[in-house]
Amino acid sequence: MQTILEVIGIVFLWIGIGFNVIGILGLIRLPDIYTRLHATGKVSTVGVCSILLGAAFLMPPAALKLIALAIFAVLTFPVSTHVIAAAAYRAGVPMRVFSRDDLDGQFTQIRYKEIEDEAHPATVNFAAAEAPPGD
Q1: 112 pairs with which residues across the strands?
Q2: First vs last C-alpha separation in the chain
Q3: How far is CA 102 from CA 31, 73, 88, 89, 107, in A?
Q4: What is the value of pTM for the model shown?
Q5: In the predicted model, is pLDDT for residue 111 greater than 80?
Q6: 58 and which of 9, 11, 65, 67 could share a cystine (Cβ 3.0–4.6 Å)?
Q7: Are strands 111-116 and 124-129 parallel, antiparallel or unpaired?
Q8: Is the pLDDT assigned to residue 13 strictly greater than 90?
């Protein structure tokens, strides 16, 4: 019985490693931040959860903690990916030229201007700037 659990655990570990390698390749090969986030966000969730489940099979005393971590990963990884993509979009990070922009006009692009701090002249602060008319 112990051998079967070890084999199942090792299979889950290798599946997780494979998904993480695919995510790394997507991060390297894809052109812009949005497609890179799509590749890494989807793949890292499955990869990490698979590694955690494999570790749960290999270490039964810690299985409850590892499954709780997997559930936490399933709930938080997609949210963090979405937040990063939304921040990039609002900051005006360009998409690849032939990408379709479904959010065009939905959000106000945030532009920043540098303001000098008189108390600390070596420090540069950023404040939201007004968008120029017609932009």
Answers
A1: 128
A2: 66
A3: 18, 28, 15, 11, 11
A4: 0.69
A5: no
A6: 9
A7: antiparallel
A8: yes
pLDDT in tens, 34-51: 888 888 888 889 999 999
Q: Give residue 92's region: left, alpha or beta (phi > 0; psi -120 to 50).
A: left
What ranges do the domains of the chain cover? 2-90
Distance of CA 124 to the CA centre of its chain: 29
Q: In sequence order, what DSSP letters do the residues of the chain get, joined into one string?
A: -HHHHHHHHHHHHHHHHHHHHHHHHHHHHSSSHHHHHHHHHHHHHHHHHHHHHHHHHH-GGGHHHHHHHHHHHHHHHHHHHHHHHHHHHHTTPPPPTT---TTTTTSPPPEEEEEE-SS-TT-EEEEEEPPPTT-
Looking at this protein, which amino acid is placed at residue 133?
Answer: P
Q: Cα–Cα distance between 69 and 10 in angstroms, integer?
A: 18
The Cβ-side half-sphere exposure at 83, using a 13 Å CA radius, reads: 5
Q: Tokens standing for 7? A: 């084999």
Contact (Cβ atoms closer than 8 angstroms) between residue 125 and residue 61 = no
